[in-house]
């Protein structure tokens, strides 16, 4: 970073209250935030425009499974939809630590404008004593690549979009937002900015035929190059998001259905019953007790291997889910041909990223909840 850039950033700082808040987080608190949310994006006249899904997992960080120790969280959020029949979406996938430091974050946005698509990918990677920001913007045939390195000394109290998701869940479970909670963050152009959080108090909302008590949080992002942007989000007291709206926007996100009572029940519903018996087939080998026993043993072995791999790579479900939604929104005649450019874009981005990665120190650590404009689409 040159001297001019350093000067421009010198006045951007997180508040002492924000830095102290991050240091006070108990890992046990975040263990109660491991669940999923699913909401619909609606227009003012009730038209369904899209959907938002977000889930937080406890997961090892694949690049450095033993670096620094401690629990890691995988945060995955997607916002997909179509406005005026124009497909658009935002995806955030990130690994964060228990003090909300971001080890790595992938942010992907797209907007299909007639024959000219706008595609934007931003990756954040902690590298030794700095944060590397890699950006690839594709507009039609034009590709713009940019890489910026932010020094650790400027980033005390920094929050990524994924970290904001965990923060708002944590604030809701505490039912308290400290005064003067100002963090560093990135704006829609991936430039350093600040954001504040303020309590909106508790109130009652109607979800279907039920009235539930919710806790409101206001988040305002202050960019250096654009007017402030404010979001109002409302959560059940256990941290589930039930409503979110950007002030001045004609769209609102609403919960689809009240969530399961516990994260465990939600996981069971999502994964289904894995103890069901094997469906019998009219094949001769099944009539042989020895061969059938070998089949069952091998099946259990494969299921165990697959489950172990899936646990070690929780991003697998997120990646496949994103691609499926990508196909459903476009409905291509040839899904296989569509897969090649979709996954090639990820490998192209990875080639630009150095492999040496390490997490930030706690002293320097510090949204993804709606289908909106680039950079702010899923910020809570």
Automatic annotation (TrEMBL):
- State the similarity comment: Belongs to the CATIP family.
Q: Where is the Ciliogenesis-associated TTC17-interacting protein N-terminal domain?
A: 17-250
Task: Tell me a GO cellular component.
Answer: plasma membrane
Kindly state which keywords UniProt assigns to this record, in alphabetical order.
Cell membrane, Cilium biogenesis/degradation, Cytoplasm, Cytoskeleton, Membrane, Nucleus
Which Pfam families does the UniProt record give?
Answer: CATIP_N
One of the GO BP terms on file: cilium organization
- Chief place of localization: membrane
Function in brief: Plays a role in primary ciliogenesis by modulating actin polymerization.
Q: Output this protein's name.
A: Ciliogenesis-associated TTC17-interacting protein
The UniProt annotation puts the region (Disordered) at 351-380
Where is the protein found, in the record's own terms?
Cell membrane; Cytoplasm, Cytoskeleton; Nucleus
Question: Known CDD domains for this protein?
Answer: DD_CATIP (cd22973)
